[in-house]
Amino acid sequence: MTPWEAPGRFWRGNLHTHSDVSDGALPPEEVCRRYRDEGYDFLALTDHFVGAFGYPIVDTVPFRTNRFTTILGAELHSGVMANGELWHILAVGLPPDFAPSHTPEFRPVAGQESGPEIARRAVEAGAYVAIAHPQWSGLTLDDARSLAGIAHAVETYNHGCATGCDRPDGFHVLDLLLSEGHRLNLCATDDAHFTEPDHFGGWVMVKAEANEPGALLAALKAGAYYSSQGPEIRRIEVTDEVVRVECSAAASIIVSGHGTSSKGLHGQSMTRGEMPLERFAGSPWLRVTVVDRAGKRAWSNPIWR
Ligand SMILES: [Zn+2]
Ligand SMILES: [Zn+2]
Q1: Against a cut of 0.70, is the pTM above it?
Q2: Which ligand sits closest to the CA of 132?
Q3: Ligand 2: distance of its center to the CA of 218 in Å?
């Protein structure tokens, strides 16, 4: 489902955040206050689910107000990636009693669940699951493939990884998985720790009838959202021949698909664009990027034709 077909309105939220319950700088209440006062509609606090921090799934329910809500979650760590390091898997919408993994510290240990196993357990517990920061993790395509039938999305922009180590990307991995036929969505997040300028830089706009955790989570799992650093995507319509985009004032509207297929439209303060899809004849999917004058981007989820 595309968000433009879904009922309701858009709600702005950050899906990946840490507090001083794990390695963030601020207490959960202050993290929630900052997102609320920055105009976000919702937040998922996702502290590191590691024994050293007591396997936290932080209770953020007390920090909800009549215009701000929270979704419980965690960043899960279990199992070894090809490079010998521990998996990072984002899980938004976990039950508060989600059973601990066997992950005493930030290192893989013998006998713990694999990355795919803990991701599947999170999905079965009701979570929206994303493959976190592929570029920063040094994720291989085989690593990503092992979660492709399980996770809902690839975290394609991680603001903390952008500002902290210049490794924000997940699009390369996502596009390769899409071209193998795996149906995954994408998400932009902050991964804020408030230890550096890692906050308020990447978010999702979720279309739902209410700013309520269950409705937001259902919309996330259904793909009824887009991701942004600033620009708005107001509508995308795909026919056999063209793609039509309506958006906030843009300098470029770009369509990407299988392999090298891509097409850009450039102009001044464009709020709509239409592009022919001849170059996408062999592409079963495409996705849209809107770039504003300051270089900030918004990204649609992949649209399957
Ligand atoms: Zn991480
Ligand atoms: Zn994180």
Answers
A1: yes
A2: 1
A3: 22
